[in-house]
Specification:
heterodimer, A: alpha+beta, Alpha-Beta Plaits, 7 helices, 7 strands, B: 296 residues, alpha+beta, Glutaredoxin, five-stranded antiparallel sheet, 16 strands, binds FE2/S2 (inorganic) cluster
Chain lengths: 225, 296
């Protein structure tokens, strides 16, 4: 057992527990985006930052990937954490302003203005769909390609994958496009990108072979500039 | 950053469309695919074809039980790998910070103009591929351009035409008499220590080195240039390209033994003594130009 202090409270957790899980155990809320139970932690969105250590050695780490250490001091809502989190959200919001999940997070964190240029990206490279496909569906049909600025998610050679079973898992977990991905319950989805309440993709046959990562959203067709 | 340029044997690059699955299987056999030798495998395929054909990647994925996604991720991650066929000559211009401030963008512009392509593209006739890299580690010499593995420093705009011309001719052509890398050596037989110089026959305008070669029960003389670095020679009978020859000393008639194998083609390297101390080794395969000089 490892004992650490989160926001001044002692907690004992098992070896290998992440800070996120430990904080959750105590009931401290930490927003997450690329974390999902049942999928391996990835640390892509950095939304779950917490501050560890004391004084000048204090630093920000992503709690979903950081394993608990003996005697660690963790602050989940210090000034520094809140500032960093807000900035991260603002940047996420700029790259994907049409995402319902990001919109909700932003408003919950009191973001009232948008200082950066909106990019309307289809993808924030959180890797949820990739992990879903590999770990839960054991298919490995999609993955990361290229690197740096050109990094993208998709099938090899951009053709329909032989191992894809069209389960739709990737679309289901995608936080970037709510509309395309909640078509089992389309009424609940508000995309905000096109404000199109009867989006064309909902009328399509479910799980037909057009996967969201292969095509721009047919619903909103947001113009990118 | 790792450099792309190691494209050694241009002529062996296969025609693009067909992928020889036998060849891929042989490559896979050589590497222990279960132990993360994916990059080595891909490198070998790329040297063979000049790029990574889709078909080849599918075969690799099939045979190694690795998912195509992972292989594709590696193949697209590294700049070394290309999924598109490349030209015969690879021009790599450095666009790192140091070269940038020394005027690399203008050099690249000039290349683009002369070749009629943009960086990252290949000319229609498949002669040239133009690429940029972000620092080759020779910043003080910038702007640096690498063509077919040969480095050129402080490249000027006016030198671009010349470089491209030379690239077509091939950079390994040495100018005898002018090039400092070529110098005469006197060699002796390692068995009887007899001088192998033959004043009666000249190669490259200098007395040659006489040896006896045998191949498929045929025997004849071979006269090598005595200039180290020059690969010119003449023989009594025609030797087919790629054949490995046996060498004998014309004086003691003993076989010249090899001490090592050629690092380029694997054939035995034949060693001879250099008067003044040292050993010169040449590859015994016709067409392989590997040679080495070890001075003691
Ligand atoms: S949830 Fe921890 S980095 Fe995304
Ligand atoms: S944003 Fe995660 S898959 Fe598109």
């Amino acid at each position: 057992m490892i004992t650490l202090k989160i926001n001044g409270l002692d907690v004992s957790v098992e070896q290998g527990t992440t800070l996120l899980e430990a904080a959750k155990f105590l009931g401290f809320p930490i927003p997450t985006l690329c974390h999902m139970e049942g999928l391996s932690p990835y640390g892509a969105c950095r939304l779950c930052v917490v501050e560890i250590g004391e004084g000048p050695k204090a630093k920000l780490v992503s709690s979903c990937t950081y394993p608990a250490e003996e005697d660690l001091r963790v602050r989940t809502a210090s000034q520094r954490v809140l500032r960093a989190r807000k900035m991260i959200l603002e940047l996420l919001l700029a790259s994907c302003p049409q995402s319902k999940i990001i919109q909700d997070l932003a408003s919950a964190h009191g973001i009232r203005q948008q200082r950066f240029k909106q990019e309307h990206e289809d993808c924030i490279l959180c890797g949820l769909c990739v992990r879903m496909c590999a770990e839960q569906m054991v298919a490995k049909a999609i993955g990361f390609r290229n690197r740096g600025q050109n990094r993208s998610i998709g099938t090899p050679f951009d053709v329909k994958s032989d191992v894809c079973r069209l389960c739709g898992g990737c679309m289901y977990v995608c936080p970037a496009c709510q509309l395309r991905c909640t078509y089992n319950e389309p009424e609940k989805a508000i995309c905000g990108g096109c404000a199109n309440l009867t989006p064309p993709c909902v009328d399509k046959e479910q799980f037909n072979d057009m996967m969201c990562y292969m095509d721009p959203c047919v619903a909103c067709e947001i113009k990118k500039d | 950053m790792k450099q792309d340029a190691v494209v050694s044997n241009k002529d062996s690059i296969k025609s693009q469309e067909q992928v020889d699955s036998e060849y891929i299987l042989r490559v896979l056999e050589k590497h222990d695919e279960n132990h993360g030798e994916l990059i080595a495998i891909l490198e070998e395929i790329q040297t063979e074809y000049g790029y990574l054909p889709e078909e080849a990647l599918r075969i690799v994925s099939d045979k190694t039980n690795r998912s195509l996604v992972d292989i594709y991720a590696v193949a697209t991650f590294y700049r070394t790998f290309s999924l598109k066929p490349k030209g015969k000559h690879l021009v790599c211009a450095c666009l790192g910070t140091a070269c940038h401030v020394r005027g690399a963008p203008r050099i690249i512009e000039e290349f683009e103009q002369q070749l009629g392509i943009k960086a990252g593209q290949t000319t229609e006739d498949k002669e040239f591929t133009l690429e940029t890299v972000n620092c080759l580690g020779a910043c003080a010499l910038g702007p640096v351009v690498v063509i077919d593995g040969y480095y050129f420093s402080k490249v000027k705009k006016s030198k671009v035409t010349q470089l491209l011309d030379k690239a077509i001719k091939g950079f390994d052509e040495l100018e005898i008499g002018k090039d400092k890398r070529i110098f005469p050596v006197d060699v002796n037989c390692p068995n009887c220590n007899h001088d192998l110089k033959d004043e009666t026959f000249e190669v490259d305008g200098c007395p040659s080195v006489k040896l006896i070669i045998s191949l498929d029960h045929k025997e004849g003389w071979l006269r090598l240039s005595s200039l180290y670095g020059s690969c010119n020679f003449s023989t009594e009978f025609e030797i087919p390209e790629g054949k490995v020859m046996n060498f004998t000393c014309p004086h003691c008639r003993k076989k010249l033994h090899s001490t090592s194998n050629c690092s380029m083609c694997g054939a035995p390297m034949i060693s001879m003594l250099v008067s003044g101390g040292g050993i010169v080794s040449i590859c015994s395969r016709r067409g392989c130009k590997n040679h080495m000089l070890d001075l003691i």
